[in-house]
Amino acid sequence: MRDLTVDFHTEDGVVHAVDGLSFDVERGTTLGVVGESGSGKSVTNLAVLGLHDPQTSRVSGRIVFQGRDLLGAPRSTMERLRGNEIAMIFQDPLTSLSPYHTVGAQIAEVYRRHRGASRSAAWERAVEMLDRVGIPQPRTRAREFPHQFSGGMRQRATIAMALVCDPALLIADEPTTALDVTVQAQILDLLRDLQEQTGSAIILITHDLGVVASTAHHVLVMYAGRAIERGTVREVLHDPRHPYTWGLLGSMPSLRRPVTEELVPVRGTPPSLINVPPGCPFHPRCDFAPLAGPRVCSGERPELSPPRGHSDACYLTSKQKQEVRP
Ligand code: SF4
Ligand code: MG
Asked: ABC transporter domain: which residues (predicted)?
């Protein structure tokens, strides 16, 4: 992704949901995208999928997938890619599963549509996928409806459906937020195992750095639709450089135990994306702005630097950060 910008028109004004976002995701790796509600995480991925409404939104930049720019790709191309080369898992499995069809039939249908498989071959593939995601007695369970599955089982079923065509890219938007802690851990383990087998790239959207710590290779921290820190998971979790990331890390009960509720990591509330603060968008909430000089922080927007590797967007010097980091 290069310089992605997404604006929406609403009755209240223009929402600047994403502003100048760039990142890469390599095959076989997971990028964790972290931020509070309203930080533009989900919007970014709807744009990747071509699911934004062209009537009310303006999207610019480049989203290159396997050498092809998806922004501006014809609708038919996006329809062919979605569910096939690029698949998604949402927080609520019932977003992807219809209550009126059996779980097996829904998975088989995705395979038939994209692969042109026969009914029986698609059914066998559905049973195989349910088995791979750890559904016991998959042949029997394939004939059941989503309401007959527990929450964790339903999320396993949506993972089976997302992976049925061996996608090169899987986008998982808060895939474990609705699940209890034990089931969360199982689902994250499952995603890791499946990634090892298939080599898919995964974009994992979450508000939970614990989930990132246990699952991702790289992490991108977002605030108000901007990337404010990025690096490997080790770099960002062990040597966080941006004051907002310090706040996020400070709010974590434990790196090993994912939280089930959205915590407020820093005093104050995330800014309205209609009136994003000038300069560093975090400055109204940042305790360290006086150090950099308040006029500096509310002046020009800080860019991510250095351009490669572990980078962050903050005016404090490395020395200042070392002195004040909690
Ligand atoms: Fe805080 Fe200023 Fe750094 Fe923004 S640029 S995080 S306001 S010190
Ligand atoms: Mg979201």
From this structure: 1-249
